[in-house]
Every structure is written in C-alpha cells, then in structure tokens.
Amino acid sequence: MAWIGVVAIFILFLAVYQCFIAKKFDIHQILKKYIVHVLVLSLLISFIIPLFSWHLGLFKKDSLLNGSDVLGYYGTIIGGVVTVMGIYCTFNYERLISAEGRKADNLPLLQFSIENVPANFISSDLYVVRGVEAFKKLHELSENDRKLKKRLNLSCYTKKKIEEKANNNNRAEFQKELEEIQKKIEDNSELKKTISQELSNIFRKTVLCKLKITNIGLQTAILSSIRLCSQNGTKSKVMIAHGPRDLYYKNVLLKDDMANIEMFAVPKEEEISLTIEFSFYDNENPFSEDNGGIQYYARGDHLLIDFTDVYRNRYRYKLPIEIVHYSSTYSIGIMHKHIPVLPIELDKPEKIEVY
C-alpha cells in the first residue's frame, strides 16, 4: 500500500519539475522557496489516495487493493513526515547556531577619534551641515542683502547723475526727483541694516577635521551610512563631497539627511580617515556649557555610523560629538566615554541564496 504514496509523490515532483523546466525557471530555487508547500501538498495527496481508491472500488474483493494494510500505509506516511520534520528542524537549528557563531567570530569592532586640521588642509570626503533651517535662512538673507546692495549702488549712481544735471541747470527742476531717489536710498539702507543685524544673529562656524576609524575586530567592516542627529528638532544633513560646489545649497535642501558611504571599508587591524567639513548653523547661539573658559556647543548631538560585516550583518555606532570653543579656536570633539565597545546590532540581513 505504501508504494502508492511513493509513486504519487514521485509523479507530483516530476510534473512540477517538467512544468518549471518548460517555463525555464530555476527548479532548485523554486523548490527551496516552496519546499514546505510541496511537502504539505504531497502529504494531503497521500492521505486522499486511499479514500479515492475506496471510492473507485479498488478495495473490493478480487480488486487490486483488496486486503491492503491501510493502517500500515497511514503509519508509514505519518512516520515519514515526522522523520522529515525532525531532520528539517535539526538542520535549521544547526544553521542558526552556525550563523550566530560565525557572526560572533567575525564581529568588526571599531574605534573612533577626531583630529582637527587647518581649514585649507585638503579637500573633504564629507560635508556635514547642522541646522538646515538656519542655513536656509542665512542663504536667503545673504541673497536679499546682495540684491539690496546692488539696488543701493544703482540708486546712488542715479542720484549722482541727477545731481550733476541739477548743478548744470535749474536745481529746482530736479528737486522732486532727488527727493524720491533719496527716499529710496534711505529705505533700502534701513532694510539692509535690518538684514545685516539678522545675519549677525545667526551662529555659524565651519570646522575641518579627520574622523579616524580603526578596526580592532576580526573581520572587515563595510561602512554603509552616516547621519548627524541633533536635539530640539534641529535638522542636519550629511553629504558626499563630490560634484561642483555651486550645487552645495541645492543638495543641503534635499530630504534625505544621511550619506551613503558604501565606498569606504575598514579592513581588519587597519585604519581609514574621512575628512569632514562640519558647518554649524543656528538662529541663536547654541551655547551649552562653560567649563573653565572652555565653551561647549551643540551638546547632545551624535553621529550614527552604520556598517556591515562580510556576511551582511548590520551594526551601528553612536558617536556623541560637540563643538568646543577655547581661546578663539573652534574644534570638534568626541565624548569617548559614552561610546560602547560593542556596536548596536540592527535588523537581520537579507537571506543569502546558496547555489
């Protein structure tokens, strides 16, 4: 009786195989993806076959299946299913244990430090803008100030020409025109003064530094992305330093606030340096703390650096940073005591297909 189930399963697999071959699909990958569905379907067919055979009268006297051991058949099917499920669970458990062990044996451990460099040192790898809204306001005010300056220069030139005409003719004829141009100059001068005051109230500092990343772990770390997070809803932007500089403003206003840095990797026991241009903007002085003449700004900010290992396990380090002001010099600092040795483990990687 058991041979009927075996034949049925064989026929089912053969039919499925022929179907996918005809459609030029990868049968290996299809079966791997739908193996549970195929097994359940095969099991159902195996259970239904005796009932279907009984309906056709194959169990009657002198028929093909007369005297067959139906209970033995079902026992064989159930035993086979239990065996297959046991093997599957064992292999799956061993695979998970192996993956966790492999992850622990290949965990990249990173150390970070920041070295401030002269502003004219070298070209940057990354641009960091803290305070996108303040940066946008600064750009708009600067543009308005430029336009006002241009109008003022034009008005002053026009007034000069009118005065030359007035000096050579009847001045009374040009008096009204002179008063109008003078009024325009005064209004624009007052507006320019207001804009200049608003510009002076915006805190802005740019610092060039090197972010050094050292891999003290057992495997290569592949950097994924970097993002600056700030307190109080301050928006920030990190960008790859490439392309013409005149696109800087446009790129800052893009919605994506992080930079993808897959082109950077840190091999085992090696170090890389990323040159970063940090630009801090705020509508008010973001003073945080004064400690013995050393002023700290933007405390609470942190860089999120995501990376993967060679097996695409994803990790993250959170680097608390601050801008330090001492003796008229600004620099970027890392709060090392708040950086854990082990990275934060993120969501599981995508499954890697094995051929």
What does this structure look like?
With 355 residues, the protein is an alpha+beta fold. The chain folds into three domains: 2-105, no CATH class; 110-133 and 202-345, no CATH class; 136-201. Helices cover 44% and strands 26% of the residues. It has six helices and 14 strands. It has helices at residues 2-22, 27-55, 70-105, 132-168, 175-201, 248-252, and strands at residues 110-116, 126-130, 203-215, 221-229, 236-240, 258-260, 265-266, 271-282, 287-291, 294-297, 302-308, 314-326, 329-334, 344-345. Helix 1 packs across helix 2, helix 2 packs antiparallel against helix 3 and helix 4 (132-168) packs antiparallel against helix 5. The relative contact order is 0.13.
Q: Helix tally? A: 6
> Termini, distance in Å?
37 Å
Q: Provide the residue-averaged pLDDT.
A: 78
Question: Any idea what the radius of gyration is?
Answer: 37 Å
Q: Would you count the extended β strands for me? A: 14
Class of secondary structure makeup: alpha+beta
Query: What is the percent of helical residues?
Result: 40-55%
Largest sheet: 9 strands, antiparallel
Q: Shape from CA axes? A: elongated
Number of domains: 3
Order of helices and strands: HHHEEHHEEEHEEEEEEEEE
Low-confidence stretches: 349-355
Content of β-strand: 25-35%
In short:
The chain is an alpha+beta fold.
How is the secondary structure organized here?
Blueprint (H helix, E strand, L loop, with lengths): L1 H21 L4 H29 L14 H36 L4 E7 L9 E5 L1 H37 L6 H27 L1 E13 L5 E9 L6 E5 L7 H5 L5 E3 L4 E2 L4 E12 L4 E5 L2 E4 L4 E7 L5 E13 L2 E6 L9 E2 L10
Parallel strand pairs: 2-8
Antiparallel strand pairs: 1-3, 2-5, 3-8, 4-6, 4-7, 4-11, 9-10, 10-12, 11-12, 12-13, 12-14
Helix pairs in contact: 1-2, 2-3, 4-5
